[in-house]
Write a structure and sequence with these properties.
Low-confidence stretches of chain A: none
Number of helices of chain A: 9
Largest sheet of chain B: 5 strands, parallel
Number of domains of chain A: 1
Radius of gyration of chain A: 19 Å
Distance between the termini of chain A: 29 Å
Number of strands of chain A: 7
Strand content of chain B: 15-25%
CATH superfamily of the largest domain in chain B: Aconitase, domain 3
Distance between the termini of chain B: 51 Å
CATH class of chain A: Alpha Beta
Order of helices and strands of chain A: EHHEHEHEHEEEHHHH
CATH class of the largest domain in chain B: Alpha Beta
Number of domains of chain B: 2
CATH architecture of chain A: Alpha-Beta Barrel
Strand content of chain A: 15-25%
Mean pLDDT of chain A: 91
Number of strands of chain B: 19
Shape of chain B: globular
Oligomer: heterodimer
CATH architecture of the largest domain in chain B: 2-Layer Sandwich
Chain lengths: ~200, ~475
């Protein structure tokens, strides 16, 4: 298996989706979970707030051509609350986002993102305001989430951010997806299984 | 001297592979159950990583969430549903996984199939991409619901990264009054401890009530552990467990059976083991229960009134009652009995087993479903369906005016065509009363036991089954 890459930073253009308590149902409505791959989920990201009942575009930052190249999502408090559905971070990733900057995240959502290699940086309200103002003024602003230095840089500015220690360590040590470490335990797995009579049957 | 341990600790210890770098345990999952909704992406990830299923003989699949229940005939009217069953079939074939397919006589809701095949056994660890996996704890298994990336982990390595839980012992002693069932016990526990009360815990259910419960009753209570916030719930294995398992297709046979029973006896919690918490409940205090709101802990006895936000103990509770009543369109402070019902649903992994239909049929016989009610009975598996036909139970339901359906999850979560419409209110034997859960964004769910659903079907309103069916007199 290919080794995971260290994630020391992610860079790209940003888009600000304002609001608090943006839940997983809003991120990906339940009806789009009838699927056999996560591949097509990107187009349904925020579907019910991006499109009306006739699939016509509503006024939403993701529908604004100025932000069509964005790969850093900026939002508010308690982002990703609600269900544990992995479809939510999958939709975000497959839409093209590679990093998130918000004031806080729901716990399960944060864990799901970490496993997918999406750094979720926590900024203050003032930090989000400064960053979103810069993005609004110039959508081509290049933003860097520096996981190692715990800061977000854009233009000639920077704001301090926090990234939960366990996740930060996992990104920097290339252990953010547990599969590699789990597979590495194969001899121990086999030894444990061999001691359980029902595993032999 | 060896420290006394709970079943949870013993199973955890025997299945711990090693400690991972982040401090979590790499836990061996002895039995992996999969279904069509959460597994296809996991198989995709497996292919992307060029990995195989490590223990195909410990992986079992069935199809339940998306199957239509009017008839198990393909192609399904919903092409997406057809694509999902096709994908599961292909994945099982490619990776050599046993598939309990529709028409095989063994398909059903994954949490009904595992036990009835004898796949669910004491002292094992079980995982499935479905939060109601806790059901299997009824056999003294430690059973977790997991996410899709964890399904990939279990497929590829038969292990997953997990943090150890504390154990809360819930003792229920005494006997249930007539007309009170395992479902009422589950709803009562959730009401007492809250929908988030079990976070961080495994629930160990015990006491004389559980000792005397059948396996199917134990499954109903374990099933709803997750509605109380507990990741898993279990009952220590005993003679009732062994009698249920003996002779089932995947149960050990001959000498292996005797060895297994000795191991299962030893896996039960030791006397004097320490629990993180102990709760005591008197079975005699429990009455037929129903939910009035939008969270499974919004429960009351059918004889009680809907809560009044004005009488709430604090501001948060008041806001939550108001939100629930606004959604449910129920009057504050009024009796819940008499609430008009549009749809009645008996089925699901909570209450879709033979004993559920048998008990409801016992009282339903000779009664007729109210003309204002659409009533459906959905067996939990093809085997349950077959047995209900054989015993004449299905016919009792049909004679009363129920639609008798094919096996599946159906209206519990409405990923198939069985959905509420508009603001319909459903008396349901399922497990969740969340907003929009039964397929209509404004549909309303009132959870209750199968016998209570039968009573509501007959009267057209939420009713005390003891009165409708004259149960108290019969028992006296």
């Amino acid at each position: 298996m290919a080794a995971l890459a260290k994630i020391t930073s992610v860079s790209g253009k940003g888009v600000h989706v304002p609001g608090s308590d943006i839940d997983t149902d809003r991120i990906i409505p339940a009806r789009f979970m009838k699927c056999v791959t996560f591949d097509d989920l990107g187009q349904y990201l925020f579907y019910d707030v991006r499109f009306d009942g006739n699939d016509e575009k509503r006024d939403h930052p993701l529908n604004d051509p100025k932000f069509s190249e964005a790969s850093i999502l900026i939002s508010g408090v308690n982002f990703g609350c609600g269900s544990s559905r992995e479809h939510a971070p999958q939709a975000i990733y497959r839409y093209g986002f590679r990093g998130l900057i918000a004031q806080s995240y729901a716990e399960i959502f944060f864990g799901n993102c970490a496993t997918l290699g999406i750094p979720c940086a926590v900024a203050t309200a003032e930090g989000i305001e400064t960053l979103s103002a810069a993005v609004a003024a110039d959508p081509t602003t290049e933003i860097t989430i520096d996981v190692e230095a715990c800061e977000v840089r854009f233009g000639d500015q920077k704001i301090p951010v926090t990234i939960v220690d366990t996740a930060r360590d996992a990104f920097l040590s290339a252990q953010w997806d547990p599969i590699g470490e789990l597979v590495d335990g194969t001899p121990e797995i086999d030894a444990t299984a061999s001691k359980l009579s029902y595993m032999a049957g | 001297m060896i420290q006394p341990r709970s079943l949870f600790e013993k199973v955890w210890d025997s299945h711990s592979v090693r400690t991972l770098s982040n401090g979590q345990t790499q836990l061996l999952i002895g039995t992996h159950l999969i279904h069509e909704v959460t597994s296809p992406q996991a198989f995709g990830m497996l292919r992307d990583l060029d990995l195989k299923v490590k223990f195909p003989n410990r992986t079992f699949a069935t199809v339940d969430h998306i199957v239509p229940t009017t008839a198990h005939v393909e192609p399904f009217s919903d092409p997406l549903a057809q694509e999902m069953i096709n994908a599961l079939r292909d994945n099982c074939k490619e990776f050599d996984v046993k598939f309990f397919d529709i028409g095989s006589g063994t398909q059903g809701v994954v949490h009904v199939v595992g036990p009835e095949q004898g796949i669910t056994q004491p002292g094992t660890t079980i995982a499935c991409g479905d939060s109601h996996t806790a059901t299997h704890g009824a056999f003294g298994a430690i059973a977790f619901g997991i996410g899709t990336t964890q399904i990939r982990d279990v497929l590829a390595t038969q292990t997953m990264a997990m943090t150890k839980l504390k154990v809360r012992r819930i003792n229920v002693d005494g006997e249930l009054p007539p007309g009170v069932y395992a479902k009422d016990v589950a709803l009562h526990i959730i009401k007492l401890l809250g929908a988030k009360g079990g976070i961080g815990y495994a629930y160990e259910y015990g006491g004389s009530l559980f000792d005397n419960f059948s396996m199917e009753e134990r499954m109903t209570v374990c099933n709803m552990s997750i509605e109380g916030g507990a990741r898993c719930g279990y009952v220590n294995p005993d003679q009732t467990t062994y009698e249920y398992l003996k002779g089932r297709p995947y149960s050990p046979e001959g000498e292996a059976w005797d060895t297994a029973v000795a191991e299962w006896d030893a896996i039960a919690s030791d006397e004097g083991c320490e629990y993180g918490d102990v709760v005591k409940i008197d079975a005699a205090d429990i009455a037929p229960s129903v939910t009035w709101g939008i969270s499974p802990d919004h429960g009351i006895f059918v004889t009680e009134n809907i809560p009044d936000p004005a009488a709430a103990k604090d501001e948060d509770t008041r806001i939550s009652i108001e939100e629930a009543l606004e959604y449910m369109k129920l009057p504050a402070g009024a009796p819940i009995a008499g609430t008009k019902v549009d749809v009645c649903f008996i089925g699901s992994c909570t209450n879709g087993r033979l004993s559920d239909f048998r008990e409801a049929a016992k009282f339903l016989k000779g009664h007729t479903v109210a003309s204002t009610v659409k009533a459906i009975a959905v067996p939990g598996s093809e085997i349950v369906n077959h047995l209900c036909e054989q015993e004449g139970i299905a016919q009792v339901f049909r004679d009363a005016g129920f639609e008798w359906r094919e096996a599946g999850c159906s209206m519990c979560l409405a990923m198939n065509p069985d959905k509420l419409e508009g603001e319909q209110l459903c008396a349901s034997s399922s497990n969740r009363n969340f907003k929009g859960r039964q397929g209509s964004p404004t549909g309303r769910t009132v959870l209750m036991s199968p016998v209570m659903v039968a009573a509501a079907a007959v009267t057209g309103v939420v009713s005390d089954a003891r009165e409708v069916f004259g149960m108290a007199e019969k028992a006296a």
